[in-house]
Amino acid sequence: MSIAEIINYKILQTEKLSLTVYQLVVFIVILIITWLIMKVIKRFINRKIKKGNISASNTLAVYQIVKYIIWILAIGIALEAIGINFNILIASSAALLVGLGLGLQQVFMDYIAGIIILVEGVMRVNDVIELEDVVGEVKHIGLRTSRVETRDDYVIVVPNHKLVNDMVVNWSHNRKLTRFHVEVGVAYGSDIRLVEKILLECANETGNVTQMPPPFVRFDNFGNSSLDFKLFFFTEDSFRVENTKSTLRFKIDDKFRENGIRIPFPQRDVHMIKPE
Description:
276 residues; 5-stranded antiparallel sheet
């Protein structure tokens, strides 16, 4: 059998479709070339991100959109190459798609939500978010699901519709610096100016606390059993801020002990009345 006969050999023959070895090879080659092109583009983008030439979050979001568009076009061209009209295929599958849409509404919602996230840019890779009292860092935004790494170093897979429909706090959307605070109460009669000084010293001695903008202290309230203060500080490491808060509390307790400042605990006076 000659090469021409092998190439033109019909693998599948129906009334509407005739598939030869040549067409199958073209189909596979188109998909392989598309895969290689996407790999080269991804590697180029990663190299630029590592050098700091481009923004990681914006670029990866655009890459995801471009990737899906290129794959849709490549599959359409590959189907045309084997004699399947892509437009006719979509039209003939309309009824099937409607049925799938009714049965898989949640999945389609996730896909639409993924497109919204990628286009609007309300959430990007490496953003620190809070969803349902869980704080995590966005590691990947896909078309149907996104991956979020929590502070406990495990990854949760979040359906995209939850990121669009639910209330999500994005701590790093507008800027890297985020403000947090630590609360502390001192006993009545304490030197409040000394308290303020000690709290600022603790903040300035903690590594992850930025000096610009500087930390500040707010005299929050005259509580039932304490004078209530809040130490506000800014940090770029919002993902691990609970460790920073813990360090601050250790320092505050040590310095309060050194300076004789007491942290009170709630007390109640109980009067027992003897019945006559």
